[in-house]
Amino acid sequence: MVSVEPAAIQVPAAGGNVSLQLMNGNAEVRFAFKLKSSNNTHYRVNPVFGFVEPGAAAQIEVIRQNGPPKGRRQARDLLRWGSS
């Protein structure tokens, strides 16, 4: 089982950083992950892809560049994972 903490984030349009923890609750299988963003102009993620070993966690940094808010439209980041 893979979990993400926090489950949702908000970053001000003025910019900022948020850290996420991607945790692998499986004791036997490592997982691969890849992050995609619908707004690459204002958002950066590091690392974009990687592996989470069994019972371990990976830290992911989400960076919001300074820029105008998109009104009611939100950038939606997509996190995909699978066993490797």
Key words describing this protein structure:
single chain, 84 residues, mainly beta, Immunoglobulin-like, 4-stranded antiparallel sheet, 3-stranded antiparallel sheet, 7 strands, 0% helix, MSP domain-containing protein
Structure summary:
Residues 74-84 have a biased composition (Basic and acidic residues). Pfam families: Motile_Sperm. The chain has 84 residues and is an all-beta fold.
Write up what this structure looks like:
The protein is 0% helix and 51% strand. It has a 4-stranded antiparallel β-sheet with strand order 1-2-6-4, with no helix packed on it. The chain has a 3-stranded antiparallel β-sheet with strand order 5-3-7, with no helix packed on it. The radius of gyration is 14 Å and the shape is elongated. The chain has a single domain (2-69), classed as Immunoglobulins (Immunoglobulin-like, Sandwich). The protein has strands at residues 2-5, 16-24, 31-37, 43-46, 49-52, 57-64, 77-83. The relative contact order is 0.34. With 84 residues, the chain is an all-beta fold.
